[in-house]
Amino acid sequence: MVRERLLLRPLAEVRDMMLGAFPRPNRSVRVPVAGATGRVTVEPIHSPLTVPATDIAARDGFAVVSSETSGADDENPVLLREPCRVNTGNAIPPGYDAVVMIEDITGGEGAWFTSRAASPGEHVHPAGEEIRSGDLILPAGHLIRPCDIGALLSYGITGLDVQAVKVGLLPTGSEVIPAGERPGPGEVIESNTAVAAAWLGEAGATCTRYPIVCDDQRLLRQAIAKGVRENDLLLVSAGSSAGTRDFTAGVIGDLGEVLVHGIAMKPGKPAIIGRVDGKPVIGMPGYPIAAMTTVRELALPLLVEWGFCAPYGERLHARLARTVQTDPGFDEYVFLTVSRSGDRYIATPLPRGAGTQMTVVRANAYLHVPPGTGSIHEGAEVEILLTGPRALIRESPGSRRPAPEHRVQGVGATLPLKNS
Q1: Closest residue by Cα to residue 173 from 299, 253, 291
Q2: Rounded to whole angstroms, how far apart are CA atoms 223 and 210?
Q3: Is the domain of 20 the same as that of 169?
Q4: Last residue of a domain, one of 287, 305, 323
Q5: CA pair distance 132, 196, nearest whole angstrom
Q6: 314 near 385, Cβ under 8 Å?
Q7: Same domain, yes or no, for 187 and 270?
Q8: pLDDT (tens digit, 0 to 9) for every residue of the chain, 420 residues total?
Q9: How many CB atoms lie within 10 A of CB 21?
Q10: Are residues 146 and 253 in the same domain?
Q11: Within this chain, do residues 282 and 182 fall inside the same structural domain, yes or no?
Q12: H or E element in which residue 296 lies
């Protein structure tokens, strides 16, 4: 049987279609505040407490009635009437409205003097200065940071509802074996779903990796139906191309509909977007870098549309060490090794291909080349995205003669480039 050639759809068009086709799942989970970092709030969170609950001392000293200290100075200290000794954080007794610091007090038991006049509210934290009962702590859709944890606990919150999404990850292929086994001739160790789970988990998804399914349409149909039933999003690894054992698109079409099969994206061209029971099913190519690109450029943007926060890399400008040749009909992603040369960054393109994972290991950044760009010449300044911390970029072992400037401007999530 001869398979039809894939009709490639532009990546931007596919993203827009996908983001509009799949509304956010109505799913949340309650988690302890102490373990909520990186999760996203479902509803606004309001304080059940007023903090501080009463006026408290901001300094060590004596609580006083401020009007009784009028006129006090070094030459004319004023005798305090019934002062109340307080330490920082102590409640201010009713009837007192200021604190005189211990440094400004002289005398002894029964006869305390102040050499400094106090104004109303001086050195006092008033009740509710930090927050009042009912005040907003965090809005809905807020990514919880470590600094938010202390505030939530301090204001009486111990648990909260956060957005949740369940993602199923289904590896396929008769040649694929589990990690830990030694591959024989023609066999490969399954890793795509492990990478996807780690990446999507960082965005807050709860991921389930299913057992490997061999190239059998009946078994694949059962596995996809189960994955759709148990999750909000299903990713199927491998079987998305046009080979004689690539059944993913056909099974998705039998169970639901194939919205897209083939995207003008390199790597990742054979990717599939399907819909089964109203839920998205994404078919990832089996080659590792193509699978990673599919997760980064399709699955993560969908999670972001659903209110999650994807771990995108830092952007910076770097100068290309070699010319990059690209197909103007595609969105292309080129992995780079980036080094520092003084106050500049130098980006060296790595060999391209969808299979070798060592390319990703050696890279610390990548370049997105939008369609219509063609070649980007050596020496051009481009906007790149880091795959690790900027602090780990090493100094270049040798300096390069500055090349003519060819500036490339980045706009939003894409990178419109100028040919030089």
Answers
A1: 291
A2: 8
A3: yes
A4: 305
A5: 43
A6: yes
A7: yes
A8: 344 567 899 999 999 999 999 999 999 999 999 999 989 999 999 999 999 999 999 999 999 999 999 999 988 999 998 999 999 999 999 999 999 999 999 988 779 999 999 999 999 999 999 999 999 999 999 999 999 999 999 999 999 999 999 999 999 999 999 999 999 999 999 999 999 999 999 999 999 999 999 989 999 999 999 999 999 999 999 877 665 567 899 999 999 999 999 999 999 999 999 999 999 999 999 999 999 999 999 999 999 999 998 877 899 999 999 999 999 999 999 999 999 988 899 999 998 765 578 888 899 999 999 999 988 999 999 999 999 888 888 887 755 444 444 444 333 333 433 333
A9: 13
A10: no
A11: yes
A12: none
Would you call 301 exposed, middle or buried from its count of C-beta atoms within 10 A (0-12, 13-18, 19+)? Answer: middle
Buried b / exposed e along 146-184 (16+ C-beta atoms within 10 A) = eebbebbeebebeebebbbbbbbbbbbbebbbeeeeeee
For residues 201 and 99, state if they share a domain.
no
- The model's pTM is 0.80
Q: What is the CATH number of the domain that holds 34?
A: 3.90.105.10
319 is in which domain, residue-wise? 315-407
* Contacts by residues 260-263 (CB-CB < 8 Å, ≥ 24 positions apart): 260/9, 260/14, 260/17, 260/18, 261/6, 261/7, 262/6, 262/7, 262/8, 262/9, 263/8, 263/9, 263/10, 263/11, 263/14
Q: Are residues 174 and 299 in the same domain?
A: yes
**Spatial contact of 161 and 144, defined as CB atoms under 8 Å apart:** no
Pairing relation of β-strands 331-341 and 263-266? parallel
Same domain, yes or no: 157 and 180: no
Residue 185's Cα: distance from chain center in Å?
A: 39
Q: Does residue 3 form part of some domain?
A: no
| CATH of residue 118 | 2.170.190.11
Q: Which helix (H) or strand (E) holds 229?
A: helix 217-230
| 72 and 157 assigned to the same domain | no
The answer as to whether 248 is a domain residue is: yes
What distance in Å separates the CA atoms of residue 192 and residue 139, rounded to the nearest whole number?
36
Q: Which residue has the tokens 């056909």?
A: 250
Q: Where are the alpha helices (DSSP H) in 238-318?
A: 248-255, 288-294, 300-305
CATH number of the domain where residue 362 is located: 2.40.340.10
Residue 377 lies in a domain: yes
The encoded tokens of residue 225 equal 């139906």
Tell me how many domains the chain contains.
4
